[in-house]
Design a protein that fits this description.
By secondary structure, the protein is mostly helical. It contains six helices and five strands. The strands form two sheets. It has a three-stranded antiparallel beta sheet. A two-stranded antiparallel ribbon has the order 1-2. α1 crosses α5 (about 135-155).
Length: about 190
């Protein structure tokens, strides 16, 4: 039995943990079952953390997507300087979203007074995004919320296990990024 993202995260019953016969630690578990189980566990974790982060940011009027954009801007070199601020297209690339989606996010952030658009001195067609003072304060709040949510989720995991998990995820991400699998626009075999 391979669990799915909707299964109970703890995988336990009132009488204790449920260990399926094909669980990662069992002798009959196939390697692909372990990787699928790992992907399912990560999906559950991400969904729970994202949902909780969204709930905690809601009183500030910030969505998780807007929070990601603000953090990306805050970590851009010279983000507070109009001449060195991030271009809208660079923000879209950094967030792995379409430029039109980045425009929508920036529109909402600008309306909230968290960012300002400034002309790019090197290219009049381009727009650069600058954090306002309110935007920098929002980044601090977002950082605090992210820390609190991470503590809630991972707080019962030993620091040694947290270090191992972080190392493994960084290694997997580096290997995946180095392989650069091609992006598919349609599933294999789909009619074009």
């Amino acid at each position: 039995m391979t669990t799915t993202p909707t299964d109970d995260a703890a995988g336990s019953s009132p009488s204790g943990p449920v260990v399926p016969s094909d669980s990662p630690g069992s002798p009959s578990a196939a390697p692909q079952d372990t990787t699928a189980e790992l992907a399912d566990a990560m999906t559950r974790a991400i969904k729970r953390i994202r949902r909780r982060t969204g709930e905690r940011l809601e009183p500030y009027g910030i969505t998780p997507g807007q929070g990601r954009a603000l953090r990306a801007l805050a970590h851009a070199p010279g983000c507070e300087l109009p001449g060195r601020a991030m271009r809208l297209s660079d923000l879209a690339d950094r967030l792995h979203i379409a430029p039109r989606s980045a425009t929508t996010v920036v529109d909402a952030l600008e309306e909230a007074g968290l960012v300002e658009r400034t002309p790019d001195p090197a290219d009049r067609r381009a727009v650069r995004i600058v954090l306002t003072e309110a935007g920098r304060s929002a980044v601090e709040r977002i950082g605090q919320v992210r820390h609190e949510v991470a503590q809630e989720y991972f707080g019962q995991v030993s620091p040694a296990d947290q270090d191992v998990l972080l190392r493994v995820l960084r290694s997997a991400e580096a290997a995946y990024g180095a392989a650069r699998p091609p992006r598919r626009t349609a599933p294999p075999g789909a009619a074009r």
